[in-house]
């Protein structure tokens, strides 16, 4: 059962207006990730994926991460829309977070912009920011969306959202 969307204020987007299958787009935003007290990426080359009921997932160029911040991790998964994903362990200073990021090495048609990019689970980092605003991680352990004040839900991943 689809929940009642939260009210949308000026300058906000509702995740319930996002499409399924998802849409991919470049955005003029700055993303920054901090782990272990160091900035491991700070980039204005940002792509986001928008899918119904999910906050945006931000994909950043692998090449923009600090040297040694990303190392191949264990396992793989598959998205019905984007294709096969592989994982990275993420390091910042002395902190190591296994399988904290993922990439689509050979993205499915329509998602070619994801090639050479990585998304990071905000809940596993010290801080993630979009345009200087600290993000809130999408609820749940599986999802990787980043919630900012300009995005309203309710969001997939919260208790009771399994059937959405």
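^ structure tokens above, recovered residues below v
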């Amino acid at each position: 059962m689809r929940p009642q969307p939260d009210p949308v204020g000026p300058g906000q987007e509702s995740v319930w207006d996002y499409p399924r299958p998802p849409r991919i787009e470049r955005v003029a935003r700055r993303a920054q990730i901090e782990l272990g007290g160091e900035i491991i990426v700070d980039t204005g080359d940002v792509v986001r994926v928008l899918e119904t009921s999910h906050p945006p997932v931000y994909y950043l160029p692998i090449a923009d991460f600090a040297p040694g911040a990303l190392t191949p991790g264990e396992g793989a998964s598959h998205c019905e829309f984007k294709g096969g994903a592989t994982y990275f362990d993420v390091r910042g200073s002395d902190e190591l977070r296994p399988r904290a990021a993922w990439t689509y090495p050979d993205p499915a048609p329509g998602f070619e912009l994801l090639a050479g990019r990585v998304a990071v689970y905000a809940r596993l980092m010290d801080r993630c920011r979009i345009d200087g605003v600290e993000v809130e991680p999408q609820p749940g352990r599986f999802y990787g969306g980043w919630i900012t004040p300009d995005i309203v839900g309710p969001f997939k991943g919260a208790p009771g959202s399994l059937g959405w």
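The chain has a mean pLDDT of 97.
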